[in-house]
Amino acid sequence: MDNKISLVIPVKDEALSLEDLLVSIDEQTRFPDEIVFADAASRDQTVSMIESYKIKGRPVALVQAGQAYPGKARNIAIEHSQHLLIAMTDAGIVLDKTWLEKLSQPFEDGQDVDIVYGHYEPIIDSFFKECLALVFLSAPRMIEGRKMRPYSVASCIMRKNVWEKVGGFPDFRAAEDRIFMEKVERSGFKVGYAPDAKVFWNIPSDFRSTFNRFSLYSMHDLRAGRAKDWHYPVLRMYTVGLILILLGIFFSPIWFLFVGIGIFGRAILLIFEKTHGLPLSKRLDAKRIFLSTIIMLWIDLAMFWGIARNILKRA
Fold it and tell me: What is the pLDDT of residues 210-233, one digit of tens each?
């Protein structure tokens, strides 16, 4: 089998994060045989940075995808790839030095797999990011005897025919990766895991960028028909909260206490889920609970704003 690898990366206005990704590609112990960037009409220095990287002698192909969301841009990049193994990551990511080596190892070893998922971790360089990660990232879970966060197209490699048979990625700004991975699973392709193939994700660093990111996700999740993943559970919680507030207004203030218990209890459960193994004193740290609660409510507000934006845009 041809074990040459095409690394495909969709980009748009990524000048601030692209340099770190390019450096981490250069440091790979197993260098990709081809790197295909699909640019979705960037207005900053993204294209010139990729051109400069190409001039250095890297095996780079730059494809202009026009106005495209990540799903469409990935499809265009994969269409232009020359090899049968397709590795995928995103801008805003830093690759561990052995990422591609570890990720491709099941194929090199001749294992009977069609797609392999690696691990991803948030870049935690502030207390805000630590609390944000506790609120919205899924907890690592045991897979084949190892803890990892699976199922991310930012840390993934597959045979090209997997992408062809499931019809590629849908053209959405959010949820396109989940939809693609679910199609792969339903199609019966053989999945492998590489816990040591790590990428590091630069998550939002402040309230403003967090709000913008999640309101955008909210709006596009709705367009993708994925309200059941996020919107419905949160809306159910707020419906219960509204009922408790009304009971507090019309019957007894004691009901307001249950609202507070519900809000902080939700945050504490998220923290406990993500900090398994830490001493209880650290898991119950008041500052962590307080900031995580504020961030949780802030993301909820961003979700509601995304709903409003979606309604306004349709109107």
Answer: 999 999 999 999 998 999 989 999
Spatial separation of the C-alpha atoms in residues 25 and 23, rounded to whole Å: 5
Within the chain, what is the greatest distance between any pair of CA atoms?
73
Whole-number Å distance between alpha carbons of 117 and 178: 13
| Tokens 């004691």 sit on residue | 254
CA atoms within 13 A on the CB side of 293: 16
Cα separation, 102 vs 198, in Å, equals: 9
As a whole number of angstroms, the distance between CA 44 and CA 42 comes to 6
Q: Tens digits of per-residue pLDDT, 185-208?
A: 999 999 999 999 999 999 999 999
Query: 150 falls in which pLDDT band (50, 70, 90)?
Result: confident
The reported pTM is 0.89
Distance CA 294, CA 184 (A): 37
pLDDT in tens, 19-51: 999 999 999 999 999 999 999 989 999 999 999
Q: Minimal CA–CA distance to 20: which of 96, 113, 98, 75?
A: 96
What CA–CA distance (Å, rounded) separates 199 from 25?
A: 11
What confidence score (pLDDT) does residue 74 get?
Answer: 95
Rounded (10°) CA dihedral 83, 89, 92, 96: -100
